[in-house]
Design goal:
Blueprint: H1 4-16, H2 36-39, E1 49-53, H3 59-66, E2 71-76, H4 79-88, E3 95-98, E4 112-118, H5 127-137, E5 138-149, E6 156-159, E7 162-165, E8 173-177, E9 187-191, H6 194-204, E10 207-213, H7 234-237, E11 243-249
Parallel strand pairs: 1-2, 1-4, 2-3, 4-5
Antiparallel strand pairs: 5-11, 6-7, 8-9, 10-11
Helix pairs in contact: 5-6
Bound molecules: S-adenosylmethionine (SAM).
Length: 251
């Protein structure tokens, strides 16, 4: 049984999926953020069984395949995304499932060397259930790596040449956006504090290896920023991290 938020988000993701084909995928961790080539969080991928949570168009899984991953598994809420991922991963024999990350759909337990999620984990309507499931999928010693908007980032707004704090960071809950990528595709996105992500990881049993409040990638070193009021901009990113990246280990 899917709750109303999941049903709404699924409908909207099915509509906007083409806007995200190949976006937010490894080696990128997020907009303007340091990349996997810079951070080297995955270490050795060759021969590993990997699971992508919110696998989208499958481009991160393709990156894993190109680095020698042995088994490619992915879960995503959107049927359109899963269909695109099947095309992206043609001839690579992926195991792809259209399902919410917060539901136990019978994926193998104690099985994966690496579970990761690039710009998808924050969509979950149940963070503790999601982290508990991810913990159960991993072998002992396995790594969980994810990236998401830095939790304070949505509150940092560029206005009149300055960056100001907008709204209330302290208040958790959900934000409803009536449009997504310019489409009539309402989405509901949970809003959580940084400490909530960290504490829920600890509660699920993980040991935290590192928390990264990403600098701007060196790829942008030669680019001069212009003042911008866009949600993601180099102007903002050079002053405040767009992305948090966390690596946790199942000991
Ligand atoms: C920005 S995209 C992720 C891109 C992807 N990680 C990649 O490597 O190409 C976010 C994805 O999260 C998925 N999503 C949203 N809510 C979800 C949920 N509750 N469970 C699973 N996937 C979800 C969306 O369908 C979308 O494909």
């Amino acid at each position: 049984m899917m709750n109303e938020i999941l049903q709404q988000n699924k409908k909207s993701w099915d509509l906007v999926a083409p806007h995200f084909n190949g976006k937010d995928s490894l080696p990128s961790y997020g907009p303007f953020a340091q990349t996997e080539q810079e951070l080297r969080l995955f270490e050795e991928v060759s021969g590993k069984k990997v699971l992508d949570i919110g696998c989208g168009s499958g481009h991160s899984l393709r990156y894993m395949a190109e680095h020698g991953a042995r088994e490619l598994w992915g879960v995503d809420l959107s049927q359109t995304q899963i269909k695109t991922a099947e095309e992206t991963l043609m001839n690579r024999e992926p195991h792809l499932f259209c399902a919410p990350m917060e539901q136990d759909i019978g994926l193998p337990k104690q099985y994966f060397d690496i579970v990761y999620s690039i710009y998808a984990i924050g969509w979950t309507t149940d963070l503790s259930a999601t982290f508990e499931l991810i913990y159960s999928y991993l072998k002992n010693g396995g790594n969980f790596i994810f990236s998401w908007d830095h939790p304070l980032y949505p509150h940092m707004v560029s206005r009149n040449g300055q960056i100001i704090l907008d709204g209330c960071y302290q208040k958790e809950g959900t934000i409803t956006y009536p449009k997504f990528k310019g489409e009539d595709a309402p989405v509901v996105i949970p809003k959580r504090k940084m400490s909530t992500y960290i504490n829920e990881l600890i509660k699920a049993g993980f040991t935290i290896d590192c928390v990264i409040e990403s600098d701007v990638s060196a790829d942008f070193d030669l680019i001069e920023e212009e003042y911008s009021e866009r949600y993601y901009s180099l102007f903002k990113a050079r002053k405040f991290p767009t992305t948090m990246i966390i690596k946790a280990i199942k000991r």
